[in-house]
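Sample A.
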Amino acid sequence: MVQLCRTWRDWPRGIVTMGRRPGLSALKLVGALSALAVVGSLPAENWPALVAVLAVTWGALAVAGISGRTLRRRGRQFAPLAIGLAAATGISQPHAAAGLWLAVTCLRCFTAMAVGLWLVQVLSAREFLRLLSWCRLPPVFVTMVSFLLRYVVLAWEEHERLRLAQLARAGGPQSGWANWRAAIERVGLLLIRALDRAERTHRALCARGWDGTATWTE
């Protein structure tokens, strides 16, 4: 998750850098999509090529300034999903090739994760939105993406406030069923507060003459 913030200017380096060269932004996006296409299209027998793509991606992450500690943390968070997808893929293959497909699917998942991390680090949110506009996507869609990029951070901030409040009332971390119940309560409260915030934001935008499209200012 990106660093918690309240304004575009508070986002970490690589997220708010203003894009002066749209061609470079397009090149970054095309490079990431090309890497994903290569990873997804290579047959399982060419697993050395997948390892090479993963190594190149790790090198790009190092150049972009992402530390090994961050990679390990993101990898641990992503590991359950990758292992689950790999297991499902391996089960669907013949017994002799199940192990190969399991390993290759894990490689593909972790390479895709690394490519996504690199793209977030080198492509700013505003560059990404302007790139969507340049691609002639509907203005309403671009506006929805801009709201998503903004309010997913606010929703995470609200979740952290709720979690800290629950810990303070409980006197410390809980375990077992109490922890699950607290998580369910947080999700319910977060949904209610998110809907309330969305209504208030929509009314405020309409009061200011918003017509459903985003206006970019330097």
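Sample B.
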Amino acid sequence: MFHRILRSLYKEQQRRANRLYSLWFTSNGNGVQKAITNAEKLVGYPTSYSSLKYLAEEEPANFLGLAKKLVGSGHPLLSTARDLLSQDPHIGHHLGGLWVLLLSKAAGSGDNLDVLQSELVNGIHQKQRAIADTTELINTAFLVHRSMVDIVQSQSNQTLNLGNKLSVLGGDFLLAKASLELGKLENTKVVEMVSQAIGHLSEGATIERTHSSFDDLKSWEDFIFLLRGSLLAHSCRSAVQVVGHPENVCEDAYNFGMNLALAQRCVEDIEVYQNNKKILTNSNFVLMLARNTSKEINENCKAIDHQEPDINSTKTLKNTIEQDMPDIVNKTRLHYEEHYLSRCRSSIEYFPNANSVQAINDILSTLSQE
């Protein structure tokens, strides 16, 4: 019963998404929906929704019954769940597993004599699919963990407390599942790399909570690497390493994942900057670029460093930026296209599977159109 409910919810969300995409991408027929659909056909099956299947296997009715109690509380766990169900490809974390599978197919089978062609399905080894699933699990686990809220002593709200407990338990459950999947690979190097990425995610989440500002591009890139780039980079590297690719291919895969995460974050930060209902944080790339370009903007930002941002401070900052740097969004697009997206393309240009390389480039092109 629960599986049918999940499938019906997913199909309904897909129908809604299709209507939105038809409005967003109607001119050249090469929009994000078409690019992702073609990519999923290449790798054999859609990777979206994979992390939720684990929740569906373990007493889901109890979990959903508890989650219903959060309705109306404003707890961020509900919005996190909504984002996961919507599978909006504009939310970069939804494509983690798909990127790993596409890269795996693009790189080919490698030189490992222990890997038989019969073990490949659509050009992808079962271990590579396991790594893609693990990437989804870990990413979703941290998204759930990060939905926790601070509850001050004067705010003794049992519903918010329940939401925090569900965030902890749900995230821990998915991490435990990821650990089991990693163990099945029987590859200590992959376990080491993914474990390092989990440590980086924890470190990045801690830095994020401090609302720290970033003095230069390098410090911002280091932060985004911890928060999301490390997992994608190490997952891509692991996926090509398990089938015996040489070090230069592994390094190309790593660089692809790292630069892709940076590009996706820039796209998301532009969306936040242009949305009047979203709060602008110090880690936003648009704000960081403006601060490092304009002394006036930087001085205005110093007054709110290490403070919890809100709508009022966001409005003030945006007004200052738009007056001093009206072309800041175009500058941001130019930066991630010339740096991160171009590096992604150069990392895979010599990979042998031309169809998969083209599928990757098609999705990257939709990022350029944002």
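B remarks: The longest strand covers residues 120-121. The radius of gyration is 21 Å.
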